[in-house]
Design a protein that fits this description.
Length: about 675
């Protein structure tokens, strides 16, 4: 076959392909290859015809042979790209990307439009494969090419925006280089925006700031972007809110952060991040109740803020609202669980605070929950403070051996740590080894003097050690005073100060003040409430006694606050107000239906009111619960006599006289 015939055969093959006679085309190509086995065009035509005849393997082989013969010729690469783009071609995306890369190389010095078309296709392919770095680098080349071609500012702006769209999903799992390219795209898009200020520019800024807030190391860039946006849009609070939340999450309370919080509140007094920021400021200034109020309000508006939940728990812990603090820790952990990038630092802090709070509740179930929380802390074994908390949890659970083991290990490994000595002190105190407990707490205070709990426990140690240390002003009293000064919300310190002034110093007025303060701090502290009421009565101050009782009974839910109902019921009984006495004593019995003395008092109240039948039932109930209550039995007999049940009355009087022969009221009856 002469070269003339080869040309004619190739022309016939081309015509056959044009007429969709692909088998005919293959015959002509094979004839050519018999004569010239390295004929580039023949291999390309075979690739084309085989592809149309659904013979992809033959087509691929033909194109690759052609490429082997002439690697820098376009036709075979174009054919291979068309073949790989067909929908029935699977698992060829990597090969297709390589083909596109080669086509870009071949088009670069020639057809710029085709270069751009291939570039678009390559970027789409990388995007489908979530190869974000390749997306970013390839798209930047496209923008560079457009710039060199003299593209308009508006076109470049749209290209930068398209790059942002491509890379937006990548913030969750991108490497630093891709992140930097995304941020650069935002900056170029902002600089090339047409209408400034304008809606497009404003939305871009919001997206840019939101994106920056996901990059923990881009603090300076975030601050600059927020300030720049504020300069363009001074009435928008969005950049300030982002900045405030950034400061909250980073755990910083610098002057810059505090200024940002107050600036936002000036602009919008109802802004959630602003109110949260103010709450954190109050917490740092030790205004704990204000902190709780503000953080609670702020979180109602911005509730997915784990750091704010943690700060709220910390403030609640400071005012000894332990159950509330545990709920806030749980909210922080829940918010961290749903976060895109859970921050381990905050998680560990929340778990540690939760465990510390559970230990304050001081029962076995809470101790078990504290141990579970501590187990979730990352690298907990290397933190001696966490180990000390675990030791306290074991102690609360009654696992003395485990608590002692941790204590001994800590004293060896961290002898200068206050918590090591405090744990040893708690163990000795629980075993009533008061002299050793004293040494341990003194060692703890020497290392960390500002912890109210250490002074409180040292005071308790002196209180129970001996009568001498209990009465010594320099011992128990001094420590309780220090504890109360260091922590003005520590109700138990004020309760023990009340005990000291009442039982040791005999100062009823001062004791009453301490009990009242203790009860105001902890309304569940019945001991302090009762003592405050009793001392008020002894001091002749019924107004104070009643105001305490009224406050408790107003807030009490049914079946609770027995002590307050009982005290007020007895007061009404003494002061000739039997109907009110009946109501209060019934409320007390709802809290404790087996209190025989309360039934006896209720009988008296009914009797004073003239309700003889119900009085009789109450006295009978009292004597059933406690057969030793002779007065109740006598009163029952007296009422039976009043009601004309003489036989019953006689029998009851005789029953009393069997037990107490000289009981005069029964003899008279």
């Amino acid at each position: 076959m002469s070269s003339k015939e080869v040309k004619a055969a190739l022309k016939s093959a081309r015509d056959a392909i044009r007429n969709k006679e692909y088998k005919e085309a293959l015959k002509h190509c094979k004839a050519v290859l018999k004569q010239e086995k390295n004929n580039y065009n023949a291999w390309v035509f075979i690739g084309l015809a085989a592809a149309e005849l659904e013979q992809p393997d033959q087509a691929r082989g033909a194109y690759k042979k052609a490429i082997e013969l002439e690697p820098n010729q376009l036709l075979a690469w174009q054919g291979l790209a068309n073949l790989y783009e067909k929908p029935n071609q699977t698992d060829v995306k990597g090969d297709l990307a390589d083909v596109y890369q080669k086509l870009l190389e071949l088009y670069e010095s020639g057809d710029k439009q085709k270069w751009c078309d291939v570039c678009n296709k390559l970027v789409e392919l990388y995007h489908q494969e979530k190869k974000y770095l390749e997306v970013a680098e390839t798209w930047q080349k496209l923008i560079q090419m457009k710039k060199e071609e003299g593209a308009e500012k508006a076109e470049l702006h749209q290209l930068w925006k398209k790059m942002i769209q491509f890379l937006k999903d990548s913030t969750r799992n991108q490497d630093n280089k891709t992140g930097q390219l995304l941020l650069t795209a935002f900056e170029h898009a902002l600089h090339s925006a047409d209408t400034v200020p304008g809606e497009d520019h404003q939305n871009l800024y919001k997206d840019f700031i939101q994106c920056l807030s996901k990059f923990p190391h881009e603090v300076d860039r975030l601050e600059k972007a927020c300030h720049d946006m504020m300069a363009w849009y001074p009435t928008m609070n969005y950049p300030l809110e982002v900045l405030c939340l950034h400061y909250v999450h980073s755990g910083t309370s610098s002057e810059k952060a505090l200024h940002c919080f107050s600036q936002l509140l000036e602009m919008d007094a109802s802004s959630g991040p602003g109110i949260i920021g103010f709450g954190i400021k109050c917490l740092k200034e030790k205004k704990y109740k204000e902190a709780v109020r503000s953080l609670t309000e702020g979180l109602q508006k911005t509730n997915q803020c784990p750091a704010a939940w943690y700060y709220l728990a910390e403030a609640q812990m400071k005012i000894h609202k332990h159950k509330d603090a545990i709920l806030s820790c749980n909210q922080a952990l829940e918010a961290l669980g749903t976060a895109e990038d859970p921050n381990l630092w905050w998680k560990n802090l929340a778990l540690q605070l939760k465990a510390k709070t559970l230990i304050k509740i001081a029962d076995a179930d809470a101790a078990e929950e504290a141990i579970k929380a501590l187990e979730q802390i990352v690298d907990a074994s290397s933190d001696p403070v966490v180990s000390a908390i675990r030791g306290q949890a074991y102690l609360n659970k009654g696992l003395m051996d485990q608590a002692s083991k941790i204590s001994q290990e800590l004293l060896l490994s961290h002898p200068d740590l206050a918590e090591s000595h405090a744990l040893e002190g708690f163990i000795h105190y629980s075993q009533k080894n008061y002299e050793q407990a004293e040494k341990s707490f003194l060692n703890a205070i020497e290392r960390k003097a500002g912890i109210a709990e250490y002074h409180q426990h040292l005071g308790l140690t002196y209180w129970f050690m001996s009568e001498e240390t209990k009465k010594d002003k320099g011992k128990a009293l001094t420590q309780f005073l220090k504890a109360a000064k260091l922590d003005s919300y520590l109700g138990s310190a004020f309760c023990y100060l009340g005990n000291y002034y009442r039982d040791i110093a005999g100062d009823k007025s001062r004791a009453r003040g301490c009990y009242k303060k203790a009860f105001e701090l902890d309304e569940t502290d019945e001991e302090s409430g009762t003592a405050a009421v009793n001392l008020s009565v002894e001091l002749g101050d019924m107004d104070t006694a009643l105001s305490i009782l009224n406050e408790v009974t107003e807030k009490a839910s049914p079946g609770t606050a027995k002590w307050a109902w009982l005290h007020r019921g007895l007061y009404y009984l003494r002061t000739g107000q039997p109907s009110q006495a009946v109501a209060d004593l019934q409320a007390a019995l709802r809290a404790d239906p087996k209190d025989s003395n309360c039934w006896e008092s209720l009988g008296e109240a009914y009797l004073n009111r003239g309700s003889y039948s119900t009085a009789l039932k109450s006295f009978r109930k009292a004597s059933e619960l406690n057969p030793g209550l002779v007065y109740s039995i006598y009163k029952a007999a007296a009422l039976e006599q009043i009601l004309g049940k003489y036989e019953n009355a006689v029998a009851t009087y005789q029953e009393i006289l069997k037990k107490t022969a000289n009981y005069v009221p029964a003899l008279k009856g």
